[in-house]
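Materials and Methods. Structural model of PPM-type phosphatase domain-containing protein. The 391-residue sequence of PPM-type phosphatase domain-containing protein from Streptomyces lydicamycinicus was retrieved and submitted for structure prediction as follows.
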Amino acid sequence: MRASAPHALVDTLRDVLAERYGALSVELLLADHGATVLTPFGAVGAAAAPVPVANSAEGRAFDGRQPHQQTRHGDVVEHHLPVTVRGERTGLLTVRLPAERSVPDAVHDLVHAAGLLGHELLVAERDTDVYQRARRIGRFTLAAEMQWHLLPARACSADEYAIGAQLESAHDTHGDNYDWASDADELTLSVTDGMGTGVHASMLTHLAVNALRNARRAGISIEDQAALADQALYAQYRGAAYVSTLLLHFDFATGRVQAVDAGSPQLWRMRGRVIERIELDPQMPLGMFEETHYKAQEFEVLSGDRLVVVSDGVYAARSPQGEAYAERALARSIHAGRLLPAAAVPRAVLRDLADFRAAEPLDDLLVLCVDWFGRPGDRSPGPAGAGGGPR
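The predicted structure was written out as tokens:
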């Protein structure tokens, strides 16, 4: 696959698996940007009818925790293998083998091949659009294209944590975004919500996210990251536009979290069966005033804690009776997903929100989940018995 043309990865893998393992068919299904459907990617790059993630065998394999599921059809065994890159599931590889060839060693190799395909797809998308086109179930607006281009991934995992995130753009994009970066000792997260709609909101969010990245990569504190991004936004817009932001910095050695709450995103924590909002002192959104000084607050995360960040489009959504989602339903949804891995939690919350709300969303919807495991010697059972350690 590394020697393959970027657009021909699936064809190359199909030929190899047919020759070495007797594969009768090899199909790649790519998740759309909302992870709601899986679109088959054809031999020549053509997209077939998408398969829903909800209530389908392929969707259950894509969402499940196992790296492999199989179904026997007479003398043929169908293998479903999630295509994963560092915790993010980007699609599903379906391979049909003769039953006599479906031995443990072959299955092990198929799991490895699915992982290798995930990494090669990530590299190939620098040079071809065929996989991006196949992922799309509709045309993106320019604002949405700009917004999605900023996102790091939908999931990421390490020994100390697992992250899952999901963004659903409103019809008229509102500029919500998330970002993260980690190294051997720390993890930094940001959730942003740009003022306005459409291209204006996307341009504003682009400036904010890249200003935060520029400051973060200089190795400075999140207080100074917020201050430098604030200055960049104010210099451009002179206070006429601003970005609501939540910044979090995790120290792996101590479990201490520094937080700068500069706007509307809310932070919730599940510890055991107790779910509560973490109240932070509100500070000015980035870019609202000149040379704003930001002060970080601290709190501690314990092994097994789950943190959930939601945008105002989520927590302020209302039921037909006028109840805000954050009043009771959000906590119920977090509790209902206590056994899910972090990567699956945002989609579960957004599905629950779709059943709760009175009308189609007028704002972007963003949910980010962090499961904290801590350093190996500090681990205890995960959220409500889900089990500590990476999922």
